[in-house]
Amino acid sequence: MNTIQQIANEPGTKRDPEEKHDGVPAVAVKDLDKSFGAQKVLNGVSLSVQRGETLAILGRSGTGKSVTLRIVIGLEKPDSGSVHIQGQEITHLTLDELGDIRKKMGFLFQHAALYDSLNVEQNVAFPLVHHKREMSKSEQADRVRQLLAEVGMEGALAKMPSDLSGGMQKRVGLARALALEPEILLLDEPTAGLDPISSGEIDELVLKLQQEHQMASIVVTHDLHSAKTIANRLALLDKGKVVIDGTYDELEKSDIEFVREFLKYS
Amino acid sequence: MSSNAALSDGLMGGFFEWFGDLGIFFWRVLRAAVRPPFEFRELFLQLDEIGSKSLPLVALAGAATGVVLSMEARYSLTRFGAKSLLPAAIVFSVIHETGPIITGLVVSGRVGAGIGAELASMKVTEQIDAIEASAVNPYRLLAATRILACILMLPLLTLASDACGVVAGWFAQALVEPLSFHQFINSGFKGADFNDFLPPTFKTAMFGFIIGLIASFQGMRTQGGAEGVGRAATSSVVLSSLFVILADVVLVKIILIFFP
Fold it and tell me: Is residue B139 within 8 Å of B38, Cβ to Cβ?
């Protein structure tokens, strides 16, 4: 069985924390506007995340958190504003051009979005089958086992997604998101709908992966406890705008009415 | 009166918007389909799903059509004193029209609903987004493979349907009046050439294109939950069947012009 340490020590898996990136943010969004019909969802959102940093985007339901994440990976186009991934503007790229950028990113969907016609092994292997064609089948199978061991799901290789609980599906989704060794990890409500123990386990897992792989991460959540555990920085959204962007301590010291209210009820 | 005009404008607007979106969808699929990497594995899966698994239904429909044609034609031709033309009437009817159109409609029912519901379900559960987020082009992986599989399999399924229709037509005929299969085929295909056979068979490739395109489009543009999936499956069948029939009218005219 492969431990997390063994996987992290493999060449190309663990990154040098001292590696220079010339201060270019891993993700930088600026002045994002997005409307769906008459409803304005984002109204001038600007955020950035550096390599090795985790940003949690918090806010009430329907404030545009998930839309921001979908814009970052190119699943939605903003009405205006820019999205830079490692310095490259992506809002005008075609689907195929976006492919090269997306290979650097891993995305965990709110409901995991596992392919229901494929078993766990095939789900995790999906990015490898399509982008690591130079890998032999046995190398792909080994990598899938490594990834599943990393998320504690090594015994579920042959199971179908419908046989898994919500927490297990998210673990498998996380393994799939890590398959191409992404430099940027995007997590949409990783603990939503999970019991407290499963939520805590997912938080610990994300934190551990984050420390091992030194990725830039954006986590969308309305679970303040989870955000506090896994993020270096928190951004609070309200009515499509960033109300505050700072550490948890800065949020606690804030005099902004909405921030105080959010902390009070969280 | 003004509300009727507004309703009419709305329907027309919706109709043109649907066509515009379909055109954009087709352009995206075409661009994705001609560029590598080619998804051969998914294509073979779809050839099996669309071709092999439709075969029993298509064969049965073809055979039933052959029996009905035999009974109807026998009655009509006997009435007009042309009973000797019965084998030719059955063979030509099956090969020229009933085989292709029955195959098109049966496949649009089975495959159109299947593709529409499958892709719609993937869409509402974010599986298509997950494919895209994995840097895989869903137009190439999901739509192009299904459309191409429909195009390739429809003519082959039509051949199977034709064969079953002719054999069943002979069988129905032989039950009433003893006639060997050899005699039936000789008489039925007398005077026939490839122009009678190839254009009607290959026109079903266009039916396949219509079924694959419309079902993929309706599935991948679905919104909403289970209700959206149901709507996508229904609209895939209704629209693909309708356009198969309309295309048949145009294609028959074209075939009659170029292969008189």
Answer: no
Burial readout B168-201 (b: 16 or more C-beta within 10 A, e: otherwise): bbbebbeeeeeeeeeebeebbbeeeeeebbebbb
Do A113 and B126 lie within an 8 Å CB cutoff?
Answer: yes
Q: Tell whether B40 lies on the interface with A, counting CB pairs under 8 A.
A: no
Does the distance separating the beta carbons of B37 and A116 come in below 8 Å?
A: no
In this structure, the strands spanning A105-108 and A88-89 are: unpaired
Look at B127 and A127 and tell me if their CB atoms are within 8 Å.
no
Instruction: Encode pLDDT of B65-124 as tens digits.
Output: 999 999 998 888 888 888 788 889 999 999 999 999 999 999 999 999 999 999 999 999
> pLDDT per residue over A137-188, tens digit each?
999 999 999 999 988 898 899 999 999 998 899 999 999 999 999 999 999 9
What residue of B is the nearest CA neighbor of A74? Answer: B133
Distance (Å) from the alpha carbon of B223 to chain A's nearest alpha carbon: 14
- pTM of the complete model beyond 0.95: no
Give B231's strand partners: none
Residues of B in contact with A133 (CB under 8 A): 37
B174: CB partners within 8 A, 6+ apart: B180, B181, B184
ipTM higher than the 0.90 cut: no
Give residue B2's pLDDT: 61
Q: Which helix (H) or strand (E) holds B25?
A: helix B2-33
Q: Which of A96, A100, A124, A184 to mutate to test the interface with B (most CBs of B within 10 A)?
A: A96
